[in-house]
Amino acid sequence: MTLSPEQWQVIGWDGITVRVPPQWQPTVILRDYLFFEHEGRPVLEMKWHHAGRRFAPDRVLRKIDKTLGQGGAGLREWFFPPALEELLHPFTVTGFAFREGSLDSRGLLLYCPACGRATLLHFHDIPGEERTMNLVLSSFRDHADGDDLLWAVYDIRAVLPAAAKLRAHEFLVGRFTLTFSLDDSDLTLLRFKPAAALLNNRDLCAFGASLADPARPADTHAPDSCTWMEEARGPKRLLRRLQRKPVWTWLKIWHIADENVILGAKGEGKRGAPEATIMEDIHGRYTARPAP
Q1: pLDDT tens-digit profile of 93-143?
Q2: Does residue 21 have a cis peptide bond before it, meaning omega lies within 30 degrees of 0?
Q3: Among 139, 173, 195, residue at a domain's last position
Q4: pLDDT(72) > 60
Q5: CA separation (Å) from 217 to 47, 96, 192, 230, 264?
Q6: CATH code of the domain covering residue 282
Q7: Count of the separate structural domains present in the chain
Q8: Ordered strands of the 76-77 beta sheet
Q9: Is 201 inside any structural domain?
Q10: What is the pLDDT of residue 272?
Q11: Which of 224, 250, 266, 285 is deepest in the core (most CB within 10 A)?
Q12: Do 131 and 205 fall into the same domain?
């Protein structure tokens, strides 16, 4: 069954949002770089940086040409159709193309005058390239309009305050970890799968206990979630600060049986704990989605 573009997977990363076909899988994820493959073949790579008011596309293209020259491929200008330029308004757009062996590749440098971000999108030779490329580009955004950012990749989706800055991320088989700094606190999003196997010989609270230390279980637990909270006070608080350890910890994990996944949100910091509603709000906006 062919999915309409509205049903394509939404990728959200570091302020970038874009829709791509569900068959395209991100195989390299860095803070400022995404690389997608389809059936083991490269289809799209994206790289971005903050250029401020002094974006110089010619300088970027010279660097690309120098890299390609080592392999015998030459960079040339791509005169993209006016309709594509209109589609990408208000970006400043520079097109380029080159040959990769027997395959053609095309790319665009997009500069956003509103946020000062410059993004390189490199489309490798892909089936139905014109239509697919135009649909991908029509969905591309390089910054959020509001105060929140979407983080969505593989089967997880989270909406976090724009002030949350990605510090580290790790995508392992069975476990994802994304750690952010938010004000004076650290926020970690967790994902474990397959839940059925992980919970085969223990309940959810027993599974999460090792993640919560030194926090202690809250008074009540829902059937499909567990919460731990702890905030050091008095001499213990002073000792934690001297040891440069968190003075507060909050953790909630929850089981989404339909997706066979366990999600978790953990906060900790070396100053006063935020209101519990803030962490609960983050929990409420972190969800699992069907795997593409």
Answers
A1: 999 888 777 677 889 999 999 999 999 999 987 655 788 888 999 999 999
A2: no
A3: 139
A4: no
A5: 42, 57, 20, 9, 15
A6: 3.40.1000
A7: 2
A8: 25-30, 33-38, 41-50, 117-123, 103-111, 92-100, 76-77
A9: yes
A10: 67
A11: 250
A12: no
